């Protein structure tokens, strides 16, 4: 498997995601809302408002029990005078009295009257309508000379007194349109334009008048974590004096109309707990907010400077590149189970960090960023499976007739191709030599020697394979084997060596060698060493040989040669003994200098069976 191919796959996934970035917007918007709901449940986010904004709600159910809505103008006028008396800083009117009662009231009276031409009734109703209009106009003029009043309008829907607004000293007309509802067809209000059709919006005007500042941004992402702590009082309670001046003084007060079926909008949150004074019929549905509350959230987001900021597109792509790169590294270095676990852990880590940053006001897209590692994994591993299976088949075909499949599987677990081209591996080497075989060969016919070696080496090979080893070479009367699979290759090697010695003694005792060499007694010496070798298919086009080479192989051969000098059947180097010192008993034979090795080797003899 080529690393370049995997990186090309990662690059292809990255370019595909970048080219389809806008197609992920609907999913990202849902993820944006889900994060808001989650931080609400976890009580995260910047939820402390400035304390400079108060909302007062005129609940339709409560007002209409006392009087028809047509008679509400005097109450609004009285409210304005009360706000002046309470010393509020700004009044925002999130309602639009667009009908002149001097026109509407007489029409209503004539409709209900049996005599449509009654002049007395007509004049009386006209006078009542004029008084209703003046009951709002006069407080507006008086209060606007003292404190700023922000009057809402929407498109062509204007208050009936808008032509007289020029004579009101601090009257500000501002558009109340929630622009995100217009721009996105899912209707969720996530952000708000501060200027609408060239004029300052309602919430932005209140912010500017309250703070004396302006915002450099044209649009802000709203911080809905503030909503739970923005005061929302009942109009009835305020007018009855149940809300003290200290709760209103110096603040921007937004007067809004609440009825539960109009001017109510979807917000990216799970719930909104309406105040206790709001009747059950008016209670807003889950995730819905009255328009006046959203304007208050907009104003508070500006006042607190907690508007969410979306990370720039270049950084969004950089983050995606980093995620894909991490996944590619895992795909190259790890097997499938570990790579899947690592990728899932990477995605979980990204989500947690993303959520924490979101709570702090930094918006990094979840899509397609979070799933980019998964897409890479889903693309890379089919490729790996196909290429590695092809390589495995080639390896099984090449080595299968002289290496157990289990051993091959352990050797190719890291990188199948490495076995074909050569790879550095740490292995335990076993070198075995038959004692006095040279002298025996001078006395016996070659056919008898060959039969003896085939019989004995067949038994030894079975023992080595049983313990997870691989017989690499038969060298005359010697065997080179190595152990590279399992968690304890040295322990496997020592167990195999002990079994070879015991089996040889049993064969001698049972006379198994007599048919081949008469009464000659079989004896062997075994050298064991642990180190790094070059392992692979080595040779030329005409002949390849799967083998191990390197200085450590020579060291194992030299250690076997010391068995004659020390008169011990099994000797281990210090490097091998260190790894199994707690599993077997050993005798320390000191250091030995051997030919071809430029440093002394610690030598140990096995003195007992497995502990």
Could you give the topology of this structure?
Elements: H1 3-19, H2 25-41, E1 53-59, H3 60-66, H4 73-86, E2 90-94, H5 101-112, H6 119-144, E3 149-153, E4 171-175, H7 179-183, E5 191-193, E6 195-196, E7 199-200, H8 202-211, E8 219-221, E9 232-234, H9 235-239, E10 252-258, E11 264-266, E12 288-290, H10 291-304, E13 309-310, H11 313-333, H12 336-359, E14 362-363, H13 372-399, H14 405-411, H15 416-421, E15 423-434, H16 437-443, H17 446-466, E16 469-475, E17 478-483, H18 489-509, H19 514-517, E18 524-539, E19 544-549, H20 551-566, E20 570-573, H21 574-580, E21 586-592, E22 601-606
Parallel strand pairs: 1-9, 1-10, 2-3, 2-10, 3-4, 13-14, 18-20
Antiparallel strand pairs: 5-8, 6-7, 11-12, 15-17, 15-18, 16-17, 18-19, 20-22, 21-22
Helix pairs in contact: 1-11, 1-13, 4-6, 5-6, 8-10, 11-12, 11-13, 12-13, 17-18
Strand content: 15-25%
Number of helical runs?
Answer: 21
User: What radius of gyration results from the CA coordinates?
Assistant: 44 Å
Query: Largest sheet, if any?
Result: 8 strands, mixed
Average predicted local confidence, pLDDT: 83
Kindly state the percentage of residues in helix. Answer: 40-55%
Report the strand count. Answer: 22
> Could you give the distance between the termini?
43 Å
